[in-house]
């Protein structure tokens, strides 16, 4: 093996020279950062040299592209959120239109009909009824266990939506009468806490 020649101590840089070189390198890096990197990457031109060299315009274009990309991303997120809201709303609307029972019956001129729900006290049932072509008089009431109650009455009505809250255990429902001069059909849609539906008249 051969021994490597030892460097001449006189040829080695002194601590002062190393410090000076480090300071010069740091200063050069700072100059490059301020004069080239900031204008080219971010459009920040502190020395105005970047604009002379065309670097500032490059940085402004990059910043603009980044802003546009962020705006596109936010717009895409908003569109997705809107589509999700529409989907959920449609699902809720579809769910809300599901009825437990639906029945239709015809009334000739002057004819009446009574339909009742068998309900326990405190039970609740939602309803919607409408006529095919015409108006009816109606009486929404309840009876049973020696009790009776009138919830609501109407004359010349085409449709109605609401809720029955049973005041007591018994039969709760509608008496309809056709007061027009032509036959019509009544459709009754129901859902809720009842055990039976029956025609009582």
TrEMBL record:
Record key words, sorted: Membrane, Transmembrane, Transmembrane helix
TM segment ranges: 23-44
Name of the featured protein: Transmembrane anchor protein
Record organism: Falsiruegeria mediterranea M17
Organism ancestry: Bacteria, Pseudomonadati, Pseudomonadota, Alphaproteobacteria, Rhodobacterales
